Amino acid sequence: MDTDAEMTWLPEADLRSAGVETFKRDQLFVMANGQYVTRHVGMAVIECGEFKTVDEVVFAQPGDLSLLGARTLEGFNAHVDSRKERLVAAGPIPAARVRSAAFRGVTRFGGDHCRLTNGLSLIQNRHRLSAHSCA
Fold first, then answer.
1. Is the distance from CB of 15 to CB of 66 less than 8 angstroms?
2. Which neighbouring-strand residues pair with 114?
3. Which stretch of DSSP H or E encloses residue 45?
């Protein structure tokens, strides 16, 4: 598991065989050695033992590492026990309190309008994957 990676990287062949489709094309990433690369990104349900989340996943190419990213760990509500080399539940999930108008499907962030996607289209493209590093 690599908690320094922002996103989860899994082999493109595994993602494609699970039916994951490209959601974002040619996203720019900087590798640990400073090299810039572009990779496609998809959406998937990622499961690791008792943990499950929906997240963006990077289509890793030959030579890329398979990585469990920080966003996936946050979605799992888990942290890494480095001594035992396993995931551990992080406890209750904090809920944010909105002080202004209640969030009812439309809100503003920096002047931009953000809308919730219809639940059917969110569910439509979910695919189940088992993460590789789930010992």
1. no
2. 107
3. strand 36-48
- Picking from 8, 69, 17, the residue whose alpha carbon sits closest to that of residue 43 is 8
Asked if 68 and 80 count as a contact pair (C-beta separation under 8 A), the reply is: no
Q: pLDDT (tens digit, 9 = 90+) per residue, 56-103?
A: 999 999 999 999 899 999 999 998 888 888 889 998 887 776 555 555
Q: Do the beta carbons of residue 44 and residue 17 sit within 8 Å?
A: no
Tell whether pTM > 0.85. Answer: no
Exposure of 20 by Cβ count < 10 A (0-12 exposed, 13-18 middle, 19+ buried)? buried
β-strands 36-48, 128-130 pairing: parallel
Instruction: Specify the 3-state DSSP secondary structure of 97.
Output: coil
Q: Where are the domains of the chain?
A: 8-130
Which tens digit of pLDDT belongs to each residue from 45-65? 998 889 999 999 999 999 999
* Angstrom distance (rounded) from CA 15 to CA 76: 19
Which residues fall within 8 angstroms of residue 1, CB to CB, at 6 or more apart? 67, 68, 73, 80, 85, 87, 133
